[in-house]
Write a structure and sequence with these properties.
single chain, 131 residues, mainly alpha, 6 helices, transmembrane helix, DUF2809
């Protein structure tokens, strides 16, 4: 059962990554709301899917809390503005670390986590993957 659940979340991660990157690299193809907030929502869903992949037997609530706290930690680290940290954020890794703290990002992470948890709940039930 764990292996099947991991496959589900692996597929969801592989579908999620290009969608999230597309909102950053080709925003002209998305409505304004998705252009502005979609990347952060997709980031949160990907983090949720990643933690669910790693911990398939933990409850959805536990995975949701862990993934949301990781999102908030990533956002809070953006408040640290040491020269080396700013240089690191300007590398390709910077897409994972972000560039500036925004309260709206915290809301996007919450929305993304809730969407991912709801999608996980539904898919696990439909595919009979619940514990």
């Amino acid at each position: 059962m764990k292996a099947r659940k991991r496959w589900l979340y692996f597929v969801l991660i592989m579908l999620n990554i290009p969608l999230g990157l597309a909102t950053r690299w080709a925003p002209q193809y998305f409505p304004s709301l998705i252009r502005t907030y979609g990347g952060d929502v997709f980031s949160a869903t990907c983090i949720f899917f990643g933690f669910r992949f790693l911990y398939p037997v933990k409850s959805l609530l536990q995975v949701s809390l862990i993934s949301y706290l990781v999102c908030i930690a990533i956002e809070l680290q953006q408040l640290y503005q040491a020269e080396w940290a700013v240089k690191l954020r300007n590398t390709p890794l910077g897409i994972l670390l972000g560039h500036g703290f925004l309260w709206s990002d915290c809301v996007c992470y919450l929305v993304g986590t809730m969407i991912a948890a709801a999608l996980g709940f539904v898919l696990e039930r439909l595919l009979h993957l619940e514990r």
